[in-house]
Amino acid sequence: MSTLRRSIMLASRPKGAPSPENFSLEEDVMPEPGEGEVLTRTLWLSLDPYMRGRMSDAASYATPIAVGAAMMGETVGEVVASRDPRFAPGQIVVGAWGWQSHIVTPGDKLVVVPPGAPSCAYLGVLGMPGTTAYVGMKDIGKPKAGETVVISAASGAVGSVAGQLAKRAGARVVGIAGNSDKSLFVQDTLGFDDCIDHRDVMDLSGALKDACPNGIDVYFENVGGDLQQAVFPLMNDFGRIIMCGMVAEYNDTKPRPGPNLMAVVRKRLHIQGFIVSDKPEHFAEWRALAAPWIAEGSLRYREHVVDGLENAPGAFIDLLRGHNFGKLVIRVAEPTKGA
Ligand code: NDP
User: What pLDDT, in 10s, does the model give residues 156-166?
Assistant: First the structure.
């Protein structure tokens, strides 16, 4: 076993879009687990848009990463050493956090990955992003048969699941995605009724109007910016807007003007934000619901795999430009043979 651990640290806080200089790759001595702790070797690292917020020290719902500390992100790892009797070397677990090759975690934060779906799915469709889509649709969107639902970042980790849930509820589902391959995937593989390539159309409002002749009842907001401006006027009376995220605005240095909110009164709109971790019980609830759908092939998903921990900063910078196609994960290492 290597005697050194590799970590990607936050070297400085970005102003606007992050650049490679905001990260540094460092090595230190391999940590050892204390009583009740487990040392894992990272196999997969999840990269997610929320990490941009953690790189800033602006007021937020979560504590920022300190400059000089390791970047945070959930991982799937292989147990190397354990001082918690529930874990043994070779087990594959999810729940250790860090852009790091090896991580020490209290055993009660770790879950053994069940057999069935590939372990990496526990960072995406069966993990935090899938749960986010589930909570947003179940608690806020509540789509009904015959309603029109619009999903931005439709090919992504959250959007792809959100749209399939709305289809299951019998809604007409229109995606918005950032290139023709993504749009094709959204329609042909995920089964959405339509998809608009927002980087290709000259008139996004017109394209949305054509795709949603009966207006929009539910909007699952992942992106913000121009997309939000185009969707908002098309909302129907008693429409619901699920405020999940606004990734197109995460690199902004000052807030953009929002839409005029008088329409909220006139149309009796329901607009609600949420953070998936608000109700931790939703994670297990979603896993129990979705794992059989994955097994039978009725819930589709796509992963965008980048190899090598050292490539995490570049992949993350690209995520914020919309260059990923599916759930972005870093393959940090292969499991030990037979694990
Ligand atoms: P995705 O896998 O969807 O990747 C992000 C996508 O957003 C890109 O592929 C791109 O899609 C789009 N995008 C990125 N940058 C831009 C840009 N500058 N302009 C326009 N589009 C852009 O990410 P996730 O599914 O993981 O996350 C989706 C949203 O959900 C994010 O806003 C995230 O912060 C939020 N979120 C919120 C949670 C909560 O608890 N509230 C939990 C998890 C995620 P395209 O090219 O198709 O436009």
Answer: 999 999 999 99
- What are the domain boundaries of the chain? 4-124+301-331, 129-277
Centre of ligand 1 to C-alpha 222, Å, is: 5
Dihedral Cα 315, 90, 125, 283, nearest 10 deg: -120
Is domain 4-124+301-331 classified as CATH 3.30.450.40? no
Q: Name the band, by pLDDT with cuts 50, 70 and 90, for residue 64.
A: very high
Burial 152-190 (b: 16+ CB within 10 A, else e): bbbbbbbbbbbbbbbbebebbbbbbbbbeebbebbbeeb
- The fold of 129-277 is Rossmann fold (3.40.50)
C-alpha span between 159 and 293 (Å, rounded): 17
Indicate whether residue 140 lines ligand 1 (CB < 6 A): no
pLDDT in tens, 118-174: 999 999 999 999 999 999 999 999 999 999 999 999 999 999 999 999 999 999 999
**From the CB of 103, is ligand 1 less than 6 Å away?**
no
Q: What is the pLDDT of residues 74-83, one digit of tens each?
A: 999 999 999 9
Look up tokens 């289809």; give the residue.
167
- Cα 87 to ligand 1 centre (Å): 34
Check if 136 has its Cβ closer than 6 Å to any atom of ligand 1: no
Task: Give yes or no for residue 248 CB within 6 A of ligand 1.
Answer: yes
